[in-house]
Amino acid sequence: MRILAIGVHPDDIEFGMGATLSKHIKKGHEISILILTDGARDKNGNYTKSDERREESLRAFNILGYKDDIKFMNLSKIT
User: Fold this and answer.
1) Pfam family example for this protein (predicted)?
2) For labelling alongside 49, which of 56, 59, 68, 77 has CA 20 to 30 A away?
3) CA-CA distance, 26 to 59, in Å (whole number)?
4) Is the pTM of this model over 0.85?
5) What is the distance between the alpha carbons of residues 71 and 53, in angstroms, rounded to a whole number?
6) What does the DSSP 8-state code read for residue 41?
7) Which of the four pLDDT bands, split at 50, 70 and 90, describes residue 42?
8) Sign (positive or negative) of CA dihedral 56, 60, 63, 66
9) pLDDT average, residue stretch 24-50
């Protein structure tokens, strides 16, 4: 099975479907991860550390057992 997981922000995929992805990883399914924005602003419009959020996402995917095909588009805003 091939799976493409798309998240708007870093951490969306991990929180929203981490357990499901972990299940598919253990079954050996082909998974690709696409994260659209850099997460540079929080919900209040304040700037955050996008590099830190990226590293947190990579660590979370590693904990889930995945580290292969992860793409960050690094868009600053989606309207």
Assistant:
1) PIG-L
2) 68
3) 17
4) no
5) 14
6) B
7) low
8) negative
9) 83
